[in-house]
Amino acid sequence: MADVADAGPRQRPRVEGGREDEILDATVATLAELGYDRLTMDAVATAAKASKATLYRRWSTKAELVVDAISRAKGCPMPEDVDTGSLRGDLISMSCGEGGFTEEMPMSVMAGLMTALHRDEDLKQAFQELFLAPRIAITNGVYRRAVERGEIGPDVDVELLSVTLPAIVVHQAFVLGIEPTEDLILRVIDNVIMPAARGSQVS
């Protein structure tokens, strides 16, 4: 019999019908209006025309609600796990397709979260587990297959390489205020990622 400790967190019951999506949409809208620090469960309940008890039955904390909302928002869906047969093709498909960097999520929403992540431990944990972890798993799969195909040189730091594209996009978006575009993604892939992937291999 499996150890209870290995069963993972208990799955809270979903809100019936389409109400859950309405609550999550209201959360994103309220987050964009108020920012993470000023957002409260009361404010979301009011915006969604739902009871606060309904929210707490599904999400135990504000952090869980907010991260669930942005993870499933129309402008930030989960990117698909793709296998085009090449690292370049996978990166383009993953980054520029549905759920990629070019999807529109209000800048004020993500920028506000980035600031709060540094000082709110609940938000940081929820963001890492619910938002980042599944996306990192997909990215790791892309680079693992590239290694198996021999597209990445043996002397390349794959762990560092795998975070380079998102790091550049985040810097452009949240430090320089430049919206991610397909052109930017392609420039990073072709001028940074692919040359770095070859390492010291002779082309």
Automatic annotation (TrEMBL):
For whether the record's keyword set contains DNA-binding, the answer is yes
Keyword annotations from UniProtKB, A to Z = DNA-binding, Transcription, Transcription regulation
Q: Which residues cross the membrane?
A: none
| Positions of the DNA-binding region | 40-59
Quote the Pfam families the UniProt record gives. TetR_C_11, TetR_N
Q: Does the keyword Transcription regulation apply?
A: yes
Provide the HTH tetR-type domain boundaries. 17-77
The record's listing under InterPro entries reads: DNA-bd_HTH_TetR-type_CS, Homeodomain-like_sf, HTH-type_TetR-like_transc_reg, HTH_TetR, Tet_transcr_reg_TetR-rel_C_sf, TetR_C
Q: Which domain of life is it from?
A: Bacteria
Entries under PANTHER family matching the protein: HTH-TYPE TRANSCRIPTIONAL REGULATOR RUTR, TETR-FAMILY TRANSCRIPTIONAL REGULATOR
Q: What is this protein called?
A: TetR/AcrR family transcriptional regulator
Question: What lineage is on file?
Answer: Bacteria, Bacillati, Actinomycetota, Actinomycetes, Propionibacteriales
